[in-house]
Specification:
The protein is an alpha/beta fold. It is built from 14 helices and twelve strands.
């Protein structure tokens, strides 16, 4: 979008949020190619009309040079004339006209109220030059009817109601943050064995056709910087994004995703803050695509001693004297989040569609790590992915991880129970080598 149009939207955002009727605009914005069905579904997932209006206006800024004039046309067609006039007064009238002579062929825009879905689809294909399709930086995962967005080279499996499209090559970015050596003043111990976890996961996600980037021993601000840099990448050619955090952790107050992970300086980053970097608002090129977060860190300081079960339910346990935890004592609610972090997360975090956060342990409890073989969770996750990724979806494999880790015991006494917060809308199958 041109800068002057973006400034007009930003200047009038409060009026748009207050008065806009987004539900009346969805069909027109889809037909004109401004938004895809997946993007509209994500906007609809916001709880209130005001939240939908705010997200629509923010996302509109990412949709190319034709988005602003087409948005004005939709406002006129839905009789939201006062808002159209408000925006038009800040922009030259010429911006409402086609940008090139080839775009004067506009009969497809007029018969919207009487066109059937099949006719609209046919017209869209016949008049491809009218729509702003050649913008890969803002093209989300193709919707089932959007065949024109399919890329040719070997990508035969499409997005469907049942499964995410996961056939891009490479599949996407995978960021691993591995905090091993902590500053003495942080009063956090070094995490011996974490490099073993890191090496396993780096190799595993490379085998699953991800671009893997490993960062080691990051302070809090450096963690935020790496997440911000990841959110600013162009993910339009990819199908998925993965973030893996290997660090100490603690329990904090939260709105949606519990827990926090520590930088080597002893300052923590809430998990809900981490996920917020890649949501649909902050990273439009990942809208409608799965965002996966794997957290190997404690959720708190409690140790689980388990409970008795019948002998046929118990498998041989592992663990020994070298087991360590990734916890520090649970922080109080008063100091768990700074005011700025808490307000920022609450103000900008929309419904977390297409996000899965897998925790190595139940919130509030410690997570065990063997200094010689790595953490229970990562060791099991790596093996389950190796053995089952060719046949099973991610959620099914994580249930296998939960079961196997729950059978372990540290020092013959303490237990661990992984778990997930799953906001995926479809099954996810990784790519595997033939």
């Amino acid at each position: 979008m041109e800068e002057r149009h973006r400034k007009i939207l930003q200047r009038n955002r409060s009026s748009l949020v207050k008065d806009l009727d987004p539900s009346a605009l969805y069909d027109g914005l889809i037909e004109k190619g401004v938004f895809t069905q997946d993007m509209v579904d994500e906007i609809k997932s916001c709880a209130t009309r005001r939240e939908q209006a705010r997200k629509l206006v923010v996302d509109l800024e990412t949709r190319g040079s034709r988005a602003f004039p087409l948005f004005l046309q939709c406002l006129q067609e839905t009789e939201q004339h006062s808002l159209a006039e408000l925006l038009r007064n800040g922009a030259p009238t010429v911006q409402l006209q086609p940008a090139t002579p080839t775009q004067v062929v506009r009969p497809v825009l007029q018969p919207l109220p009487v066109s059937s879905p099949m006719d609209v689809d046919k017209q869209r294909k016949d008049h491809v030059p009218v729509y702003p399709m050649p913008r890969p930086s803002t093209t989300p995962t193709p919707s089932p009817e959007g065949e024109y967005r399919l890329r040719p080279q070997g990508r035969t499996r499409r997005d469907s109601i049942q499964s995410y499209k996961m056939d891009a090559s490479p599949c996407g970015h995978c960021l691993i943050i591995n905090n091993v050596e902590f500053d003495p003043q942080s009063e956090l111990s070094n995490r011996r064995g974490s490099n073993i976890d890191c090496d396993k996961l780096e190799s595993r996600f490379k085998a699953l056709n991800f671009i893997v980037d490993v960062k080691t021993n990051l302070k809090q601000r450096q963690i935020k910087h790496e997440l911000s840099a990841l959110s600013k990448k162009d993910h339009s050619q990819y199908d998925c994004c993965v973030v893996i955090m290997l660090s100490h952790g603690t329990e904090v107050s939260h709105n949606r995703f519990p827990g926090a992970v520590y930088g080597v300086d002893g300052q923590h980053v809430p998990v809900q803050y981490i996920t917020n970097y890649l949501n649909g608002q902050h990273c439009p090129s990942l809208q409608g695509k799965p965002k996966l977060f794997f957290i190997q860190a404690c959720g708190g300081g409690e140790r689980d001693t388990g409970f008795e079960v019948s002998p046929d339910e118990v498998e041989p346990s592992v663990g020994g004297a070298d087991d360590q935890t990734d916890a520090i004592p649970t922080s109080s609610s008063s100091d768990s989040l700074s005011t700025s972090d808490e307000l920022d997360a609450r103000a900008t975090l929309p419904t977390p569609s297409d996000i899965l956060v897998s925790y190595s342990t139940f919130p509030g409890y410690v997570s065990w790590r063997d200094t010689q073989s790595g953490s229970w969770y990562v060791e099991t996750l790596d093996r389950i992915l190796d053995e089952n990724a060719a046949t099973d979806d991610l959620v099914t494999m994580l249930m296998m991880v939960n079961h196997e880790v729950s059978q372990n015991s540290a020092k013959g006494l303490y237990k661990q129970m992984p778990g997930s917060f799953n906001f995926l809308r479809k099954l996810l199958y990784f790519q595997t080598q033939a």
